[in-house]
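This protein record is not my work; I was only asked to verify it. Would you go through it and say whether the fold makes sense for this chain? Here is the record exactly as it was handed to me.
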Amino acid sequence: MRLLLLTDNYLPHVGGSRIYYHELLSALPHTEVSVLTRAQIGDEEFDMNQRYRVVRCPLEESARLRPLRLQHLGIYWQLSIHGRREVEFFRPDVILAGELVPTGPVAARLARGNRLPLFVFTHAEGPSTLAKTRWQSRLARWVCRRADRLVVASDNARNGLIDFLRADPAKIVVLLPGISEVHFEDRFQARPFAEDKSGVRLLSVGRLISRKGHETVLRALPILLKHWPDLRYTIVGEGPERPCLVALIDSLNLGGRVAMVGKLGDEEVLRLYAESDCFVLPNRDDPVTGDTEGFGIVFGEASAHGLPVIGGKTGGTGHSILEGRTGFRVDGENPQAVANGIESLLENTDLAREMGEAGRRLAMSEFRWKNRAARFEEILEEGRDRANRPDLPR
């Protein structure tokens, strides 16, 4: 089977959805894949090392059309041109869209024009964000009607499609993300709160954007440091919130307690997971854009290493964090709630270790990409069967 994926952005650009597509496509054993996506700095080295084909094209928004909210027109045009060329060259059996908008409408037209099945991916933030703009929501609803299958990464995303875009529930399938195999290697297994370790190390890994909740952790630290002065907090990642977080660290006099290490190589991140005692990232929804956490791959990664995890209550984290068993889900807007969650582990290190062990077992049984890929192949076959049935609406 040959799959053509159209996606607005892709690795090496950082993001959970990009990792999701890459890991899923890489794990498909009997499938040829081509990815049509945005050209960006550093993509040549990445593209050369993949088992699938990657085709890059310029996808630029129009600043002049932004006041009219038509900035995506240039992207549609470029995707349409390069998409037609790739269909003619690659001869796919199935068209995949990485987003409802902007790739969804182009993928839908390519699928219809070539009589191919259409599968559309979306994550938790997609439906709620698109619903805030009239023309984008209309486009998204049209794509939902055209799709043979809508593939979502969590129940939260499934509910968003139904509630915000009135998608047909019969078309929606949930395919949870997985975790890269390297996170399961014994050499990177953590030993949370081991007796021979000095101090307590908290860790966050993720883009520095408001909804990840780094600010809330920083505001919780002064509460915790009153009783646990040897606490240390490491933040991995880059993003637009960095200046605000640096300023907050200074204003709270946390300079000696917090390390913002920026973007690190894979090996360095793995070692930080292994050296830490607790993973904390109290995600919350963005009130302006509606952006939310789709699943929380980093929570699954931390669990794979054997760490107890603390995340937010919003989005799809209920899949990646089992409340009271592998960690806690807390109010990501409330520093006291975050402090209470961390304090529960500090006061009961046996519980913390049990949660870490339970999380590792969960990750090993539920979060492996080879299992996700096998399920996706089943979804593809089911969707192709649906597309070939003339009695079903398209």
In short: The CA atoms of residues 300 and 320 lie 6 Å apart.
